[in-house]
Fold each of these.
Amino acid sequence: MKKINTALPRQLFSLLGLAGLLHTTAGWAQGNVAVSENDFLDEMPIVLSVSRLPQRLDETPGAVTLLDRDMIRRSGARDVPDLLRLVPGFQTSMSFEADAPQASYHGVFGHYSGRIQVLVDGRSVYSTYVAGSVAPGLMSVALEDIERIEVLRGSNSVAYGARAMLGVVNIVTRHTAATLGASARVNQGENGIQDTRLGLGWRLQNSSMRLGVDQQGDDGLTGANGHNRVRRVNFRSDWRTLGDTDVQLRAGWMDIDAGRGIAELHEPLRDTSYDSSFVQVDWNKVLSPEQDLALMFAHNQESYRDISPFPLIPGLNFDFSGTARNDSLTAQHTLRLSPAVRMVWGAELRRESVTSLPVYNTSEALVTDFTRLFAHAEWRLRPDLLLNAGAMAEHSSASGASLAPRLMLNWHVAPGQTLRAGMARSFRPPSEFETSGDVRYAANGKVFEIFYLARGNVAPEKVLTRELGYYGSFSWLNSNLDVRLFDEVMSGLIQVKNYDAQVDGESFTDIRDYVNGDSLTLRGLELQWAGRPWPGAQLGFNHSYTKLFFPNPPTKETLASTMPESASSLFFSQQFSNGWTFSMSHQNSNPFRLQRTGNYKQYISRTDWRLSKTLLVGRNAGEIALTVQNQGPAQADFYKSFAFERRAYVSLRLDN
């Protein structure tokens, strides 16, 4: 197979030509027309999660997709994974077969999505028990509670550590002061869709609070063992103790009941249950106009139940049940060192523990401690030139020390036109299961099969990312354009490898272990364009093109088709003056391999539409809507015999 040329692909330098064109077109030169910072301070969104500093969208060290409340509502999506399919470079699945509906960025390299970080109000929500999967965390918030979602497309271990290897999804919930009063929503429709939500917000002296209770349910994918139900309770309180101090308390509980299995010997039909609960406390103090201090403590617990009998051997059960918990304490200091330099630095202590006799062959808790030190500086070299530099040093009691640096330069070549260039290094340590998994099938004191026996000879995965980007704002159609050209070199991909061994005097074959296997390079382009061309209208177009290269033939041919080479999405919405709103989205991609399909590949061609009418119920605003998902042929999802077919449902909503 063809060797990799590790130099940046020639396409990456096309933006340099664009820089020259914009430079000439704008008639700008350092010596004659000064570019003031005010030229760029028009209506520009502020993002919070990329570097841990509040930054304008054209000054972040990476490409960001923003999904705001209005777009979320108009999309017709029922959960966060369904929203993320409209983000360039993302692949999603609506299946509950692995754990919950999933979203991954730049390829699905296993049954679980564990190479991106998902935050809810700054709290990491990946599953400690389910191999670092972010799927349960993506389901932990009702869409009505979300203010916006910030998606960084690119490595960000420098800000959030190990799990942010390929990107970060930051879900920001609504402030309680904006949700006072009662709210309700009901969805009812095809495929057993039954969703309900009740919310209540109130004020108490210097604090405001919100309690939300909801349930989401349907019959799952056609061909799957459906009847999936998600139940959630979320509480938030915002308390201003003094003029310069804020305290926020969040707590919640979620339960996912799902049917799984495909009626095969090792995949019997069964019911599973996943429960999680959390408490989060944030303390923020303004020390001066130039600096502030933030502390966050978070505690999370998980419980998973997945048991099914093996029909051929009485007394033998397939059991993957267990519990997990994690605690984290983060301190963060933000300050301005000079008129040109801002900085944030801090530390995190995190402890994760997993307990499962059937999965680890021990009733003892397996504990991993993390210590993280991070710092990021933003230096305005000139009014038109901004340097972002940062690093995170992380030590894990399981995998040792790692360092994740990043350097990015943003150049405002003309008013509303910005180029960025930089590089970053990120990593992902193996999960507890990848280092210590020990799954044995036994009955009446006899071991019949060893399914997994990890030997711990696995190191963290690494990725070196080099990218060029462009961000432009245009009066034409009131639009903006973001382009990302990337070269991502992944090394030591953690993969399953079978081996034979003598265990306790018995011979066993095809035991599964995890090892560092293939290395690969992803090169490509991502483009997102969004505009508001006339009153009441939203129009968006996304496209991604990615090629995979291997320095050596991959151990599995299916690895080469883990993501589509080309994928696009289109979104249009029009709000009319009489209270009606029509929205439509279309998603299209080249064929790619699904998670449980071997060599089978599936292309995506999905169209959704939504028609809604605003209502006035007393003093409260409301809405009634009809949503149709996948108006067209069924799409295979997760497994070749599972299909996402057309679904139509009616929504009735009453706002605060």
Amino acid sequence: MSRLNPQMHPLLNSPVLEALLAKNIYTVLNFIETEIKHIVAITNLQYKEVLGIRKHLINKYAAVTRDGVSYYNEIITKSALFSTGIKRLDSILQGGFLTGNIYEICGLPASGKTQLNLTLVRNVAQNSILNVYYIDTKNDFSGRKLKAVLDASKTDEEHVKQIMSQILVKKVDTVHDLINTLYEIKNLLYTKTIKLRLIIIDSLPPLFYSISDFSKRYGLITTMVNVMHVLAKEFHTAIVVTNVLTTSYENTSTEDISGKIGLGKYWYNVPNTRLTIKKFENSSECSIIIAKSNRLLEGAQCNVKITDAGII
């Protein structure tokens, strides 16, 4: 459901929105589900005014009934399978990324996750005229690093400029920033301001580490996942999310390291496909394994190499 903003109704001005957000009323659905007298108390609006906003939001954002055949035809027409630009990875993914899906790349620290993301950004932008949206939660996205990857792959200067212009980068510091950014992308796609097939979020766990309250964290993850599903399904994008493996050691041998996915049990079943990346010791090579998928062969894997020109 859409996030509340001033464009939705003249009475939803900044002070009113701030008062609503302070009470965890973020979306149209939150607003409609909350008792009118409660919103009156929060915002100091009159009962009639709140009722008018409520009716307007219901009329504008209520679900529209669709028949199954037309919905199926839309999916067939607008869905796309696009290459990652990494041949061996494409092979185990049966062609590349499929829109409508959420993919997760997880691995230990320094296993090559960000290098893989940069390679995906470069390859998808290089092989299409579409935008790629990169959400950076760690504040470590580097335009220079991406340009170095492009230069190392012997891309000419004119093409480098074109590719860089197709990549949209947003740095976020909190979960709320991330959710707002996802809603912004939704609005950009709805108004056809951008043409987008791939959204990368690098990475999720840093935003949630500081939230100790389980119910609050669960609620925020649920809200985030709902928007991600809308972006993937309704706007036919593929979403790639980076996650971490937390480790436990049975003993001192590296062979006895076991990994646990970040963000807990609820998140575990959210991605359609989970890829685990593991870097070989004292080597530039790493393996990518399909650890979980509702469409692809689980356990399928490939070996790739980290180079100055990205992952190949």
Amino acid sequence: MDFLLVLLGLALLFAGGEGLVRGAVAMAERLGVSKLVIGLTIVGMGTSFPELLVSLRAALAGSSDIAIGNVVGSNISNVLVILAVAALVAPIAGWNGNVKRDALFGVAGAFLLMLLGFSGGIGRFAGFAMVAILAVYLYYVYRQEQVDPPPLVDHFDEEVHERLAPRLAVAFVLGGLTLLFAGAEALVSGAVSIAQSFGLSERVIGLTIVAIGTSLPEMAASVAAAKRGHTDVAIGNIAGSNAFNTLGILGLSSIIRPMAISPGMAAIDIPLMTAVLAGLAAMVFKLKVLTRNAGLAMLGVYALYVGVLLAI
């Protein structure tokens, strides 16, 4: 029953995220919001809505390990699983300076989280600071891309937005939010029950099942982009999502309820996440293409990590 609850939660999160972003983009376009703003906000952050709702729900329930593990595990799987799968679909190349910028910012956010881990947790002041840093960065990106606007390519069919009537767009937004809230509730409840039934820690569940599940929208976006030949969009989606996950999601969650960071998370998982994001940054600066062989190697590293995580 608990596994069915988790599967139901994942399905609701995926459907809710799709509906929310489709409806929000359609509404924004009808209101005359520029594609640049839509790309930086609704589309850019839309794939992280499931992580946000799940971490908020877990934080409110006092399950800090699931809330933090969800973000840390999602960032790790974004690089080692989702980017790797996208590379298997089509070798990734052609990324620009924006990807390098976002990758470096993701590393900076990871280092900040690592420092907070050594202090034992994320308080409300730290949460406000994290959200403020993200807001300043988004404003900087907005100003920079006003001068040199990138082409907006997302994983949705733009004609879908144009065909949505205003009432239907509102229905998509409200329905998407409803599904997201219901999915977050089902996933967190099921994950906690599984952890208790099998004697697994909430940390392990958060880093694996919950993290992979909430990363499904990133998977869909990146694989779709790779199939269409937009491999630069695939890696850009990952680089931007990682920074938002760390600063935005954990920042908002800790404002609502301060969260403790467990010793295992602080000593192993967050430093590993930082190393993975640093590796991504090094890759986009040093390499010109991410090959299929590199994708296979990344999947192998992730499998090793999960194996060690379950063994200890």
